[in-house]
Amino acid sequence: MGGISKVIMKFRLDQDSLGKVKIPADAYYGAFTGRAIKQYHVTGNKSHENLIKSFVMIKRSAAVANMKTKAIDTKRGKAIVTACDKILDGKYVDQFVVDMINSGAGTAFNMNSNEVISNVALEVLHKKKGQYEFLHPNDHVNMSQSSNDTYPTAMHVAILMNLKETIPAIDILIKSLSKKAKQFSSFKKIGRTHLMDALPVTLGSEFAAYVTSISKARKEIIDAQKELQNVALGGTAVGSGANTPKGYRKIAIAELGKISKLSLKPEKDMQHSLQSKFAVVNLSSALRNLAIEIGKVSNDIRLMASGPIAGLAELGIPAVHAGSSIMPGKVNPSLAECMNMICFNIIGNDTSVSCAAQGGQFELNVMLPGMLKCMLESTDMLKNFLPIFSANLIDGLTANKDKLREDIENSPVIVTLLTPTIGYLKSAELFKESLKTGKTIRELVVSKKLMSNKEINSLFG
Protein backbone atom coordinates (compact mmCIF):
# COMPACT_ATOMS: atom_id res chain seq x y z
CA MET A 1 0.00 0.00 0.00
CA GLY A 2 1.25 3.44 -0.90
CA GLY A 3 1.76 6.02 1.80
CA ILE A 4 -0.32 9.17 2.13
CA SER A 5 1.58 12.11 0.68
CA LYS A 6 1.72 15.16 2.89
CA VAL A 7 1.54 18.64 1.39
CA ILE A 8 3.73 20.99 3.35
CA MET A 9 2.43 24.55 3.19
CA LYS A 10 5.08 27.25 3.19
CA PHE A 11 4.48 30.67 4.71
CA ARG A 12 6.14 34.04 4.93
CA LEU A 13 5.73 36.77 7.53
CA ASP A 14 4.16 39.90 6.10
CA GLN A 15 3.94 43.11 8.12
CA ASP A 16 1.46 45.97 8.30
CA SER A 17 0.83 48.75 10.84
CA LEU A 18 -0.64 46.25 13.34
CA GLY A 19 2.25 43.83 13.22
CA LYS A 20 3.27 40.61 11.48
CA VAL A 21 0.89 38.13 9.82
CA LYS A 22 1.60 34.64 8.50
CA ILE A 23 0.78 34.56 4.78
CA PRO A 24 1.08 31.66 2.30
CA ALA A 25 4.48 32.04 0.68
CA ASP A 26 3.12 32.02 -2.86
CA ALA A 27 0.34 34.55 -2.12
CA TYR A 28 0.58 37.99 -3.68
CA TYR A 29 -1.69 39.55 -1.08
CA GLY A 30 -0.28 40.73 2.22
CA ALA A 31 -0.95 41.30 5.92
CA PHE A 32 -4.06 43.46 5.65
CA THR A 33 -5.72 40.95 3.33
CA GLY A 34 -4.59 38.08 5.56
CA ARG A 35 -6.44 39.68 8.46
CA ALA A 36 -9.47 40.57 6.30
CA ILE A 37 -10.17 37.08 4.97
CA LYS A 38 -10.47 35.81 8.53
CA GLN A 39 -13.00 38.51 9.43
CA TYR A 40 -15.15 38.88 6.32
CA HIS A 41 -16.51 35.41 5.69
CA VAL A 42 -19.89 36.64 4.43
CA THR A 43 -21.18 35.60 0.99
CA GLY A 44 -18.54 32.98 0.29
CA ASN A 45 -17.95 34.71 -3.05
CA LYS A 46 -14.85 36.57 -4.12
CA SER A 47 -15.20 39.99 -5.62
CA HIS A 48 -16.80 40.50 -9.01
CA GLU A 49 -14.48 40.45 -12.04
CA ASN A 50 -15.55 43.95 -13.07
CA LEU A 51 -14.78 45.30 -9.59
CA ILE A 52 -11.29 43.77 -9.81
CA LYS A 53 -10.76 45.26 -13.27
CA SER A 54 -12.07 48.64 -12.13
CA PHE A 55 -9.73 48.80 -9.15
CA VAL A 56 -6.70 47.72 -11.14
CA MET A 57 -7.48 50.33 -13.81
CA ILE A 58 -7.79 52.97 -11.06
CA LYS A 59 -4.41 52.00 -9.56
CA ARG A 60 -2.81 52.09 -13.01
CA SER A 61 -4.33 55.50 -13.76
CA ALA A 62 -3.19 56.83 -10.38
CA ALA A 63 0.37 55.65 -11.04
CA VAL A 64 0.40 57.41 -14.41
CA ALA A 65 -0.93 60.63 -12.84
CA ASN A 66 1.58 60.40 -10.00
CA MET A 67 4.44 60.02 -12.47
CA LYS A 68 3.24 62.94 -14.58
CA THR A 69 2.98 65.17 -11.51
CA LYS A 70 6.40 63.97 -10.26
CA ALA A 71 4.84 62.56 -7.07
CA ILE A 72 6.41 59.15 -7.70
CA ASP A 73 9.65 58.22 -9.42
CA THR A 74 9.45 56.64 -12.86
CA LYS A 75 10.99 53.33 -11.76
CA ARG A 76 8.32 52.58 -9.17
CA GLY A 77 5.54 54.13 -11.27
CA LYS A 78 6.33 52.01 -14.31
CA ALA A 79 6.57 48.88 -12.17
CA ILE A 80 3.05 49.57 -10.85
CA VAL A 81 1.75 50.14 -14.39
CA THR A 82 3.37 46.88 -15.58
CA ALA A 83 1.89 44.99 -12.63
CA CYS A 84 -1.57 46.37 -13.41
CA ASP A 85 -1.24 45.42 -17.07
CA LYS A 86 -0.37 41.85 -16.10
CA ILE A 87 -3.48 41.63 -13.93
CA LEU A 88 -5.68 43.17 -16.62
CA ASP A 89 -4.33 40.47 -18.96
CA GLY A 90 -5.86 37.88 -16.62
CA LYS A 91 -2.94 37.00 -14.35
CA TYR A 92 -3.09 37.00 -10.53
CA VAL A 93 -6.89 37.46 -10.49
CA ASP A 94 -7.16 34.60 -7.98
CA GLN A 95 -5.22 36.75 -5.50
CA PHE A 96 -8.18 39.11 -5.02
CA VAL A 97 -9.59 37.05 -2.19
CA VAL A 98 -11.64 39.47 -0.09
CA ASP A 99 -15.38 38.72 0.09
CA MET A 100 -17.71 40.89 -2.00
CA ILE A 101 -19.18 42.26 1.23
CA ASN A 102 -16.31 43.37 3.43
CA SER A 103 -15.27 46.33 5.56
CA GLY A 104 -17.06 49.68 5.53
CA ALA A 105 -16.16 51.80 2.49
CA GLY A 106 -14.45 48.74 0.96
CA THR A 107 -11.13 49.41 2.70
CA ALA A 108 -10.32 45.69 2.83
CA PHE A 109 -10.75 45.28 -0.92
CA ASN A 110 -8.78 48.44 -1.65
CA MET A 111 -5.90 47.07 0.44
CA ASN A 112 -6.19 43.63 -1.17
CA SER A 113 -5.68 45.44 -4.49
CA ASN A 114 -2.79 47.54 -3.18
CA GLU A 115 -0.99 44.49 -1.79
CA VAL A 116 -1.38 42.30 -4.88
CA ILE A 117 -0.23 45.08 -7.21
CA SER A 118 2.64 45.94 -4.87
CA ASN A 119 3.94 42.36 -4.74
CA VAL A 120 3.61 41.86 -8.50
CA ALA A 121 5.43 45.16 -9.01
CA LEU A 122 8.18 44.04 -6.60
CA GLU A 123 8.77 40.98 -8.79
CA VAL A 124 8.91 43.28 -11.82
CA LEU A 125 11.69 45.09 -9.95
CA HIS A 126 13.37 41.71 -9.23
CA LYS A 127 12.56 41.95 -5.52
CA LYS A 128 10.84 39.45 -3.25
CA LYS A 129 7.23 39.57 -2.12
CA GLY A 130 6.90 41.62 1.03
CA GLN A 131 9.99 43.77 0.46
CA TYR A 132 7.84 46.85 0.85
CA GLU A 133 10.80 49.12 1.61
CA PHE A 134 11.28 49.16 -2.19
CA LEU A 135 7.61 49.53 -3.20
CA HIS A 136 4.89 49.85 -0.57
CA PRO A 137 1.14 49.05 -0.90
CA ASN A 138 0.13 52.28 0.88
CA ASP A 139 2.94 54.69 0.11
CA HIS A 140 3.24 53.90 -3.59
CA VAL A 141 0.33 51.85 -5.01
CA ASN A 142 -2.21 53.83 -2.94
CA MET A 143 -0.42 57.17 -3.45
CA SER A 144 -2.80 60.15 -3.84
CA GLN A 145 -5.76 57.89 -3.05
CA SER A 146 -8.04 56.69 -0.27
CA SER A 147 -10.49 53.82 -0.13
CA ASN A 148 -13.03 56.62 0.24
CA ASP A 149 -12.54 57.85 -3.33
CA THR A 150 -11.26 54.71 -5.07
CA TYR A 151 -14.16 52.45 -4.06
CA PRO A 152 -16.93 54.91 -5.12
CA THR A 153 -15.07 55.39 -8.41
CA ALA A 154 -14.72 51.63 -8.88
CA MET A 155 -18.42 51.23 -8.14
CA HIS A 156 -19.35 53.54 -10.99
CA VAL A 157 -16.86 51.98 -13.39
CA ALA A 158 -17.87 48.38 -12.56
CA ILE A 159 -21.58 49.16 -12.93
CA LEU A 160 -21.00 50.98 -16.22
CA MET A 161 -19.02 47.99 -17.49
CA ASN A 162 -21.88 45.66 -16.57
CA LEU A 163 -24.39 47.96 -18.27
CA LYS A 164 -22.48 47.57 -21.55
CA GLU A 165 -23.93 44.05 -21.68
CA THR A 166 -27.19 44.68 -19.82
CA ILE A 167 -28.62 47.29 -22.19
CA PRO A 168 -28.13 45.12 -25.32
CA ALA A 169 -29.88 42.30 -23.44
CA ILE A 170 -32.85 44.61 -22.81
CA ASP A 171 -32.83 45.50 -26.50
CA ILE A 172 -33.07 41.79 -27.38
CA LEU A 173 -36.22 41.50 -25.26
CA ILE A 174 -37.75 44.61 -26.82
CA LYS A 175 -37.05 43.22 -30.30
CA SER A 176 -38.63 39.86 -29.46
CA LEU A 177 -41.75 41.46 -27.99
CA SER A 178 -42.01 43.79 -31.00
CA LYS A 179 -41.96 40.81 -33.36
CA LYS A 180 -44.79 39.18 -31.41
CA ALA A 181 -46.77 42.44 -31.41
CA LYS A 182 -46.61 42.45 -35.20
CA GLN A 183 -47.23 38.71 -35.55
CA PHE A 184 -50.30 38.83 -33.27
CA SER A 185 -51.68 42.16 -34.56
CA SER A 186 -54.77 40.65 -36.22
CA PHE A 187 -55.71 38.23 -33.42
CA LYS A 188 -58.63 39.68 -31.48
CA LYS A 189 -59.19 38.54 -27.93
CA ILE A 190 -61.16 39.37 -24.82
CA GLY A 191 -59.53 42.10 -22.80
CA ARG A 192 -59.52 41.77 -19.02
CA THR A 193 -59.83 44.32 -16.25
CA HIS A 194 -60.01 43.27 -12.58
CA LEU A 195 -59.28 39.77 -14.01
CA MET A 196 -62.81 39.86 -15.46
CA ASP A 197 -63.93 39.94 -19.10
CA ALA A 198 -63.66 43.36 -20.69
CA LEU A 199 -63.88 44.82 -24.18
CA PRO A 200 -61.87 43.15 -26.94
CA VAL A 201 -58.30 44.08 -27.75
CA THR A 202 -55.80 42.35 -30.00
CA LEU A 203 -53.12 40.05 -28.72
CA GLY A 204 -50.74 42.19 -30.74
CA SER A 205 -51.78 45.40 -28.98
CA GLU A 206 -51.12 43.74 -25.61
CA PHE A 207 -47.57 42.91 -26.70
CA ALA A 208 -47.12 46.38 -28.19
CA ALA A 209 -48.00 47.81 -24.77
CA TYR A 210 -45.30 45.60 -23.22
CA VAL A 211 -42.81 47.05 -25.69
CA THR A 212 -43.82 50.58 -24.67
CA SER A 213 -43.44 49.82 -20.96
CA ILE A 214 -40.02 48.20 -21.27
CA SER A 215 -38.79 50.87 -23.69
CA LYS A 216 -39.72 53.55 -21.15
CA ALA A 217 -37.85 51.64 -18.42
CA ARG A 218 -34.84 51.30 -20.73
CA LYS A 219 -34.79 55.07 -21.29
CA GLU A 220 -34.71 55.64 -17.52
CA ILE A 221 -31.69 53.32 -17.25
CA ILE A 222 -29.89 55.20 -20.04
CA ASP A 223 -30.60 58.52 -18.32
CA ALA A 224 -29.42 57.19 -14.94
CA GLN A 225 -26.28 55.79 -16.54
CA LYS A 226 -25.11 59.30 -17.45
CA GLU A 227 -24.90 60.33 -13.78
CA LEU A 228 -22.54 57.42 -13.10
CA GLN A 229 -20.02 58.91 -15.49
CA ASN A 230 -19.18 61.51 -12.82
CA VAL A 231 -16.54 59.91 -10.57
CA ALA A 232 -15.04 60.59 -7.14
CA LEU A 233 -11.38 59.84 -7.92
CA GLY A 234 -9.16 62.55 -6.48
CA GLY A 235 -11.41 63.34 -3.53
CA THR A 236 -9.31 61.14 -1.20
CA ALA A 237 -10.58 60.85 2.41
CA VAL A 238 -13.32 63.48 2.76
CA GLY A 239 -13.73 64.99 -0.69
CA SER A 240 -11.18 67.76 -0.15
CA GLY A 241 -8.49 66.18 -2.30
CA ALA A 242 -5.97 66.22 0.54
CA ASN A 243 -2.57 64.63 -0.24
CA THR A 244 -2.97 64.84 -4.00
CA PRO A 245 -0.46 66.70 -6.18
CA LYS A 246 -1.65 69.55 -8.38
CA GLY A 247 -3.17 68.28 -11.62
CA TYR A 248 -3.42 64.70 -10.37
CA ARG A 249 -7.19 64.41 -10.40
CA LYS A 250 -7.67 65.58 -13.98
CA ILE A 251 -4.90 63.33 -15.30
CA ALA A 252 -6.00 60.26 -13.31
CA ILE A 253 -9.64 60.47 -14.43
CA ALA A 254 -8.66 61.09 -18.07
CA GLU A 255 -6.35 58.06 -17.92
CA LEU A 256 -9.08 55.95 -16.32
CA GLY A 257 -11.55 56.94 -19.03
CA LYS A 258 -9.01 55.98 -21.68
CA ILE A 259 -8.22 52.53 -20.30
CA SER A 260 -11.82 51.67 -19.35
CA LYS A 261 -13.22 53.06 -22.64
CA LEU A 262 -15.86 54.92 -20.64
CA SER A 263 -16.87 58.59 -20.79
CA LEU A 264 -15.75 59.63 -17.32
CA LYS A 265 -15.45 63.09 -15.83
CA PRO A 266 -14.71 64.51 -12.37
CA GLU A 267 -17.73 65.02 -10.12
CA LYS A 268 -17.96 68.78 -9.57
CA ASP A 269 -18.75 68.48 -5.88
CA MET A 270 -16.32 65.94 -4.49
CA GLN A 271 -17.83 65.93 -1.00
CA HIS A 272 -21.16 65.04 -2.56
CA SER A 273 -19.53 62.13 -4.41
CA LEU A 274 -18.28 60.63 -1.15
CA GLN A 275 -21.22 61.27 1.16
CA SER A 276 -24.10 60.71 -1.30
CA LYS A 277 -24.81 57.68 -3.46
CA PHE A 278 -27.46 59.46 -5.52
CA ALA A 279 -26.17 58.20 -8.88
CA VAL A 280 -26.19 54.55 -7.77
CA VAL A 281 -29.63 54.78 -6.14
CA ASN A 282 -30.96 56.48 -9.26
CA LEU A 283 -29.85 53.58 -11.45
CA SER A 284 -31.01 51.02 -8.90
CA SER A 285 -34.52 52.47 -8.96
CA ALA A 286 -34.48 52.41 -12.78
CA LEU A 287 -33.50 48.72 -12.69
CA ARG A 288 -36.28 48.09 -10.18
CA ASN A 289 -38.80 49.78 -12.49
CA LEU A 290 -37.62 47.62 -15.37
CA ALA A 291 -38.00 44.52 -13.18
CA ILE A 292 -41.55 45.56 -12.29
CA GLU A 293 -42.47 45.86 -15.96
CA ILE A 294 -40.79 42.61 -17.02
CA GLY A 295 -42.36 40.85 -14.04
CA LYS A 296 -45.79 42.01 -15.18
CA VAL A 297 -45.13 40.68 -18.68
CA SER A 298 -44.04 37.34 -17.24
CA ASN A 299 -47.18 37.13 -15.09
CA ASP A 300 -49.43 37.87 -18.08
CA ILE A 301 -47.72 35.22 -20.19
CA ARG A 302 -48.10 32.66 -17.41
CA LEU A 303 -51.81 33.44 -17.17
CA MET A 304 -52.42 33.51 -20.93
CA ALA A 305 -50.60 30.18 -21.29
CA SER A 306 -52.43 28.54 -18.38
CA GLY A 307 -54.21 25.31 -19.20
CA PRO A 308 -54.19 23.72 -21.69
CA ILE A 309 -57.73 22.68 -20.70
CA ALA A 310 -58.68 24.30 -17.40
CA GLY A 311 -56.90 27.64 -17.91
CA LEU A 312 -57.05 30.56 -20.35
CA ALA A 313 -55.06 28.70 -23.01
CA GLU A 314 -54.67 31.78 -25.20
CA LEU A 315 -50.96 31.27 -25.75
CA GLY A 316 -48.88 28.21 -26.48
CA ILE A 317 -45.45 28.15 -24.87
CA PRO A 318 -42.38 26.25 -26.11
CA ALA A 319 -41.24 23.34 -23.97
CA VAL A 320 -37.69 23.87 -22.71
CA HIS A 321 -37.74 20.79 -20.49
CA ALA A 322 -40.26 18.41 -18.93
CA GLY A 323 -42.67 20.33 -16.71
CA SER A 324 -43.11 17.70 -14.04
CA SER A 325 -41.25 14.80 -12.50
CA ILE A 326 -44.54 12.96 -11.95
CA MET A 327 -47.05 14.24 -14.56
CA PRO A 328 -45.93 13.11 -18.05
CA GLY A 329 -46.31 15.58 -20.91
CA LYS A 330 -46.80 18.62 -18.68
CA VAL A 331 -45.32 21.87 -20.02
CA ASN A 332 -44.75 24.70 -17.55
CA PRO A 333 -43.94 28.39 -18.12
CA SER A 334 -40.61 27.71 -16.41
CA LEU A 335 -38.67 30.55 -18.04
CA ALA A 336 -41.37 33.06 -17.13
CA GLU A 337 -41.25 31.76 -13.55
CA CYS A 338 -37.47 32.16 -13.50
CA MET A 339 -37.86 35.68 -14.87
CA ASN A 340 -40.29 36.48 -12.06
CA MET A 341 -37.79 35.30 -9.45
CA ILE A 342 -35.08 37.46 -11.03
CA CYS A 343 -37.41 40.45 -10.92
CA PHE A 344 -38.19 39.82 -7.23
CA ASN A 345 -34.46 39.71 -6.47
CA ILE A 346 -33.83 42.96 -8.34
CA ILE A 347 -36.63 44.65 -6.38
CA GLY A 348 -35.11 43.32 -3.15
CA ASN A 349 -31.66 44.51 -4.21
CA ASP A 350 -33.07 47.98 -4.79
CA THR A 351 -34.42 48.01 -1.25
CA SER A 352 -30.95 47.07 0.05
CA VAL A 353 -29.32 49.79 -2.05
CA SER A 354 -31.83 52.37 -0.82
CA CYS A 355 -31.24 51.46 2.83
CA ALA A 356 -27.45 51.50 2.32
CA ALA A 357 -27.55 54.89 0.63
CA GLN A 358 -29.57 56.32 3.49
CA GLY A 359 -27.23 54.67 6.00
CA GLY A 360 -24.23 56.91 5.30
CA GLN A 361 -23.13 59.50 7.85
CA PHE A 362 -21.51 62.92 7.43
CA GLU A 363 -18.62 62.92 4.93
CA LEU A 364 -18.76 59.27 3.88
CA ASN A 365 -21.13 56.50 2.97
CA VAL A 366 -19.47 53.32 4.24
CA MET A 367 -22.06 50.84 2.95
CA LEU A 368 -20.54 50.67 -0.53
CA PRO A 369 -19.61 46.95 -0.83
CA GLY A 370 -23.16 45.85 -0.02
CA MET A 371 -24.58 48.33 -2.51
CA LEU A 372 -22.22 47.26 -5.27
CA LYS A 373 -22.92 43.56 -4.71
CA CYS A 374 -26.62 44.26 -5.27
CA MET A 375 -26.06 46.41 -8.36
CA LEU A 376 -23.74 43.94 -10.06
CA GLU A 377 -25.98 41.02 -9.13
CA SER A 378 -29.05 42.73 -10.64
CA THR A 379 -27.31 43.66 -13.87
CA ASP A 380 -25.65 40.22 -14.09
CA MET A 381 -29.02 38.47 -13.84
CA LEU A 382 -30.50 40.69 -16.55
CA LYS A 383 -27.60 40.40 -18.98
CA ASN A 384 -27.37 36.63 -18.45
CA PHE A 385 -31.04 35.68 -18.61
CA LEU A 386 -32.87 38.19 -20.83
CA PRO A 387 -31.40 36.75 -24.07
CA ILE A 388 -32.46 33.24 -22.99
CA PHE A 389 -35.92 34.44 -21.92
CA SER A 390 -36.35 36.22 -25.27
CA ALA A 391 -35.07 33.44 -27.54
CA ASN A 392 -36.49 30.40 -25.74
CA LEU A 393 -39.82 31.77 -24.51
CA ILE A 394 -40.96 34.98 -26.22
CA ASP A 395 -39.83 34.02 -29.71
CA GLY A 396 -41.58 30.65 -29.44
CA LEU A 397 -44.98 31.89 -28.24
CA THR A 398 -47.94 30.92 -30.41
CA ALA A 399 -51.51 32.20 -30.40
CA ASN A 400 -54.51 29.87 -29.96
CA LYS A 401 -56.67 31.60 -32.57
CA ASP A 402 -59.72 29.38 -32.10
CA LYS A 403 -59.76 29.94 -28.34
CA LEU A 404 -59.35 33.69 -28.75
CA ARG A 405 -62.26 33.86 -31.22
CA GLU A 406 -64.44 31.58 -29.11
CA ASP A 407 -63.94 33.67 -25.96
CA ILE A 408 -65.00 36.84 -27.76
CA GLU A 409 -68.10 35.16 -29.16
CA ASN A 410 -69.11 33.64 -25.81
CA SER A 411 -68.42 36.52 -23.43
CA PRO A 412 -71.49 38.52 -22.38
CA VAL A 413 -69.32 41.63 -21.95
CA ILE A 414 -69.43 42.03 -25.74
CA VAL A 415 -72.83 43.57 -25.19
CA THR A 416 -70.96 46.75 -24.26
CA LEU A 417 -70.36 47.33 -27.96
CA LEU A 418 -74.14 47.39 -28.48
CA THR A 419 -74.95 50.03 -25.84
CA PRO A 420 -74.71 53.01 -28.24
CA THR A 421 -77.43 51.27 -30.33
CA ILE A 422 -79.74 49.59 -27.78
CA GLY A 423 -78.89 51.48 -24.57
CA TYR A 424 -77.22 50.62 -21.25
CA LEU A 425 -80.23 49.12 -19.43
CA LYS A 426 -81.25 46.84 -22.29
CA SER A 427 -77.61 45.77 -22.65
CA ALA A 428 -77.43 44.94 -18.91
CA GLU A 429 -80.57 42.77 -19.24
CA LEU A 430 -79.00 40.90 -22.16
CA PHE A 431 -75.78 40.39 -20.16
CA LYS A 432 -77.70 38.76 -17.30
CA GLU A 433 -79.80 36.66 -19.65
CA SER A 434 -76.69 35.41 -21.45
CA LEU A 435 -75.15 34.28 -18.16
CA LYS A 436 -78.39 32.63 -17.05
CA THR A 437 -79.25 30.82 -20.27
CA GLY A 438 -75.81 30.17 -21.70
CA LYS A 439 -76.85 31.79 -24.97
CA THR A 440 -74.40 34.17 -26.61
CA ILE A 441 -75.12 37.88 -26.95
CA ARG A 442 -75.27 37.37 -30.72
CA GLU A 443 -77.95 34.69 -30.36
CA LEU A 444 -80.05 36.80 -28.02
CA VAL A 445 -79.83 39.99 -30.08
CA VAL A 446 -80.69 38.25 -33.34
CA SER A 447 -83.52 36.21 -31.78
CA LYS A 448 -85.05 39.36 -30.26
CA LYS A 449 -84.62 41.12 -33.63
CA LEU A 450 -82.69 43.94 -32.00
CA MET A 451 -79.96 43.73 -34.66
CA SER A 452 -79.03 41.56 -37.61
CA ASN A 453 -75.99 39.28 -37.82
CA LYS A 454 -74.50 41.67 -40.35
CA GLU A 455 -74.94 44.65 -38.03
CA ILE A 456 -73.39 42.73 -35.12
CA ASN A 457 -70.44 41.71 -37.29
CA SER A 458 -69.77 45.33 -38.16
CA LEU A 459 -69.63 46.18 -34.44
CA PHE A 460 -67.60 43.16 -33.41
CA GLY A 461 -65.19 43.67 -36.32
Can you walk through the features of this model?
The chain is mainly alpha-helical and 461 residues long. The protein folds into three domains: 27-143, Orthogonal Bundle (Fumarase C, Chain B, domain 1), CATH 1.10.275; 149-401, Up-down Bundle (Fumarase C, Chain A, domain 2), CATH 1.20.200.10; 411-460, Ribonucleotide Reductase Protein R1, domain 1, CATH 1.10.40. The protein is built from 17 helices and eight strands. The chain has helices spanning 31-39, 49-68, 74-88, 107-124, 137-141, 147-183, 203-227, 248-260, 270-275, 278-304, 334-358, 368-392, 401-410, 419-422, 424-437, 441-447, 453-460; strands at residues 11-16, 19-24, 188-193, 196-202, 230-231, 265-266, 315-316, 398-399. The strands form four sheets. Strands 1-2 form a two-stranded antiparallel ribbon. Strands 3-4 form a two-stranded antiparallel ribbon. The longest helix has 37 residues, at 147-183.
Give the gist of this structure.
It is built from 17 helices and eight strands. By secondary structure, the chain is mainly alpha-helical. The radius of gyration is 30 Å and the shape is elongated.
Secondary-structure topology with pairs:
Blueprint: E1 11-16, E2 19-24, H1 31-39, H2 49-68, H3 74-88, H4 107-124, H5 137-141, H6 147-183, E3 188-193, E4 196-202, H7 203-227, E5 230-231, H8 248-260, E6 265-266, H9 270-275, H10 278-304, E7 315-316, H11 334-358, H12 368-392, E8 398-399, H13 401-410, H14 419-422, H15 424-437, H16 441-447, H17 453-460
Parallel strand pairs: 5-6
Antiparallel strand pairs: 1-2, 3-4, 7-8
Helix pairs in contact: 1-4, 2-3, 2-4, 2-6, 2-8, 3-4, 6-7, 6-12, 7-10, 10-11, 11-12
